[in-house]
Amino acid sequence: MQRTTQAAVETTGTLPLAEASQPGRLISLDVFRGLTVMAMILVNNPGDWGHIYPPLEHAEWNGCTPTDLIFPFFLFIVGVSLVYALDGIKQRGGPQGAVLGRVLRRAGVLFGLGLLLSLYPKFNFPVVRIMGVLQRIALVFLGCSFIFLKTNWRTQVGLIIGFLVGYAVLMQLVPVPGFGPANLEPATNLGAWLDRTIFTEPHLWKQSKTWDPEGLLGTLPALGTGLLGCLTAQWLRRKDQEPAAKVAWLFVAAGGLIILGLCWAPWFPINKALWSSSYVLYCGGLAMAGLAALYWICDVQGYRAWTRPALVYGVNAILVFCLSALLSRTFGLFKLALPGGKTGGLKEWLYEWGIAPFFSDPRNASLVGAVTLIVIWYFILSWMYKKGVVLKV
Length: 393
Description:
Keywords: Membrane, Transmembrane, Transmembrane helix
Domain Heparan-alpha-glucosaminide N-acetyltransferase catalytic: 25-183
Structural class: mainly alpha
Protein name: Heparan-alpha-glucosaminide N-acetyltransferase domain-containing protein
Strand order of the largest sheet: 1-4
Number of helices: 14
Organism: Hymenobacter mellowenesis
Transmembrane segments: 69-86, 129-149, 156-174, 215-236, 248-267, 279-298, 310-328, 367-385
Low-confidence stretches: 1-23
């Protein structure tokens, strides 16, 4: 990672408030990113995994909870951000070798950070998980950047349709070697078979070892999520439309995507682990509507007084995501005595002695534990924001 101050961030779209206010920059994008990362920390760090409110859990398989929206929202944001970073280069024309090299480098760094998170703290290479959240972000960023630089918006619409329809055909019509007819079950679908074949079981998601929710084949529809963000950004950057018209048409498009996703769901269920085609449309529509609303509130109407918490998270999103995961695992290395004669890590010790005793409902205690972590990170990120420190890959 590098340190930067008030300089523009090449490929993340993250800027301090003063620069984000400049023409062509979106306060709403950083706000949306910050809110998404805050939600990610909230659901990834409950005080007690055994006591969580249902909306803060993933759907068991088919279906979509608020928690299931977080990752596709982030990939949508990646698509929006890369357009704001790369559109000027695309419009100027000429050789693109240098910028494609930077795109490839950034994707490689993101993928490497994902592997680091998988390895830490044991660094057990024979069983390291190959795919993961940052790895999927890296692949989507790489693929969408190349597609955006080399194609126009009409081709991008065609590619989204091709990715989603093609993925549905693969998952629902192609027989699974060793299992028979196509199916959408966790361990026996085509994507799970492909991951076991390429990566082998020791390198898959440790909770299953037979399939991976960020598997290789699922990258195909995930590119569709990123491209929906690309199309949204290109629409917002148009100079021949008034802001009110931009927002109105975005809401129309978002509503259409949501309806299409719900209509497709009976045949190809909304499913985060599979990153199903209906899930891409449904979540993409909600992300589009969310950004449109924030664009109208923050960038058009100028209501920004409430945005600071989201902005301080938004400009250092990857940093806080990585460090929160690393610190959580580091705390787990310290084994301490817990109530009831049990032992646990430092995080569990702080929760059991400092938060849980003050709540009669363990779900409330668990929620407060997650919110406390968000507040702690806010003060750290707020100090960095004030100093103009933005860490980027």
